[in-house]
Amino acid sequence: MNLTPYIPYLKNIKTPFYFYDTFFLESHLKKVKKAAEKFGYHIHYALKANANDKILHIFNQLDFGADCVSGNEVKKAIEIGISPKKIAFAGVGKTDEEIIYALNQDIFSFNCESIAELNVIQNIAAKLNKKAPVSLRINPNVDANTHRYITTGLEENKFGINQWEFDTIIEIIKNSPNLDLQGLHFHIGSQITDMQVFKNLCSRVNEIQKWFYNHNIALPHLNLGGGLGVDYENPENINFPDFDKFFNIFNSHLDKIAGQQIHFELGRSLVAQAGVLISKVLYIKNGINTNFAIIDAGMTELIRPALYQAYHKIMPLENKNTENNIERYDIVGPICESSDTFAKSILLPKLNRDDLLVIFTAGAYGEVMASRYNLRDLPKAYYADEFS
Ligand code: LLP
Q1: Long-range Cβ pairs for the range 1-6 (8 Å, 24+)
Q2: 11 CA distance to ligand 1 centroid (A)?
């Protein structure tokens, strides 16, 4: 994303705030769509990454489906105009109200995560005289090789149905007239940058799908989830992830049954690079080994560094004359927690009070995870197309 044309506007906005380059987002999404369409793959955007109306409208205009993990996300996707027929609904803890709502909307699929959930959906669907389209979210026990808080596909994780439950599952499906088994669903984790992981996933999907095939179960759909990572170290590297390479892996390694439809639920890789968080330096304070730059954004605006030790590149909004003027800083927020730290011991041009800093690659799991801890105001968002 090139912020230069927007600097005169951004300098006059009250900090901290999110800024999204809607032009970049649109062209990025068109590129992704093209790469997926080459193989006839369907993409459901994972709303949890960023659910701002303006962003969602762009997804809807470009005809993406939605992946939702709460009744409110399903509601939001429908309000924006996304067809219920393109909405997948996952999550280990769907409430009765959420299930009733989604059933009445005739969504594409409930991604079911447990035997108990299948039984509840059967009962509710029977009462409503509906047939619930379900996919089984399988826990394939494949290591995503990412941070353990965003690993979801290991047996120790709470997600999905484990292999030892398959026989019971088949019995339930056979005896549940209001469940319509549509396919299998997998999502093994997030911020996956090691492409070998997706090859491993394909091998497990092939084995599991074969098991169902051998038990005479037809699976019209396979949903491989999301998880594709971005390059947080180099925000300017917009060619990573390589979507052609990503989809090619599935095309080459997945044993697709004739006529089967392949779905993905990407979140981060679609929006992360389109957003930044902009914050102002409040105070500079000398520490023992470093200087602290205390900024007006904190873990309340962007929790990823505090929660996952995540790295986000930080740079001044405006280039300064940096020669011989580099200093070492811990970039910290104003919240009363030591984990409220964006970066430790980084080198930046000498900072002064009121300097603006850009925290890059904040378009995914940034604003949407903001909180009002310390009774702070929620951050506002601004969009490139408002400034042109
Ligand atoms: N499908 C399911 C069922 C998911 O749970 C997720 C993400 C996705 C799709 C989208 O995954 P993505 O393509 O965005 O990796 N807050 C964390 C990330 C949590 C991801 C949760 N599930 C972070 O900031 O890193």
Answers
A1: 1/235, 1/238, 1/273, 1/274, 1/276, 3/276, 3/317, 3/358, 6/384, 6/387
A2: 32
> Mind listing the domains of the chain with CATH numbers?
22-272 (3.20.20.10), 274-386 (2.40.37.10)
Both structure tokens of 280: 């102002």
Render 375-388 in DSSP notation, one character per residue.
Answer: GPPPPEEEEGGG--
E strands, 131-260, in order: 132-137, 179-185, 221-223
Atom 8 (ligand 1): residue with closest C-alpha? 226
The mean pLDDT value for 103-118 works out to 97
pLDDT digits (tens, 9 = 90+) for 63-97: 999 999 999 999 999 999 999 999 999 999 999 99
- Ligand 1 pocket residue status of 46, Cβ below 6 Å: yes
The per-residue pLDDT for 195 is 95
Query: What's the Cα-to-Cα distance from 26 to each of 22, 240, 268, rounded to whole Å?
Result: 6, 16, 15
Give 278's strand partners: 17, 358
User: Distance between CA 317 and CA 2 in Å, rounded?
Assistant: 11
pLDDT at 324 over 70: no
Give this prediction's pTM.
0.96
Residue 13 corresponds to which amino acid?
I
